[in-house]
Amino acid sequence: MTIDTLRRFLFPCFFPTKPSQPIPFSNNRPTTTHPSSPTSSTSSTTTATTTAPPRPSKSMVIGTIFGNRRGHVWFCVQHDRLSSKPSLLLELPLSTNHLVREMRNGLVRIALECSPSRPDLAMCPLRSVPRWTAFCNGKKTGFAARRKPEDRVRSVLRTMQCVSVGAGVIPSSGFGSGSEEIMYMRANFEHVVGNADSESFHLINPDECPGQELSVFLLRSRLAPTR
């Protein structure tokens, strides 16, 4: 069911003019991409290159949402898809199934809020905040955490280096529990900095494509001290 939903709601966004392109995975026989076979089907719109092409604007970043089918969703921000060191890596308190259900409506707003009680957290950059209260489309879902890119995450990012925009599945490579495949969606996001207490990332759909609307907000509240 999850695979069907991803195919229905994500693929029309990324491949609006290529209906005959083979579907990279299905319920019966999922096709996977192996690190040793960069030319296999990965739902990519480009082929692997030795250097990543320049981004159209300095505010555009590469956003990747990935995770095991029944595990937590991770959100990764990169300035260069060929680098396995992300500029931001968050583990969200959402399961893949939960996120896909929200995507059925075509609109997903993930808000991460923090109310720092320590002076050092009140003054640090937003991306250095270690823990967030997470909301998805207005509903509290738990707590998100900033993570450092461990070897298992770097391995996942290296596997997806040849993918610039797309969605699909890849082998788990030791990521998460068991041998579940990793589902992913990669796209360009517009990075908007409001001020020191607010940043956001907004999915950029291809031209003339009415695809998915997805945004991730980082917000820090500054409540006045009570007397």
UniProtKB/TrEMBL annotation:
Q: Which residues form a coiled coil?
A: none
Q: Enumerate composition-biased segments (Low complexity).
A: 29-52
Pfam families (alphabetical):
DUF617 (PF04759)
Record InterPro entries: MIZ1-like_pln (IPR006460)
The annotated region (Disordered) lies at 21-59
Biological processes per GO annotation:
hydrotropism
Question: Which NCBIfam families does the entry link to?
Answer: A_thal_3588
PANTHER family named among the record's database cross-references: PROTEIN MIZU-KUSSEI 1, PTHR31276
Which protein are we looking at? Protein MIZU-KUSSEI 1-like
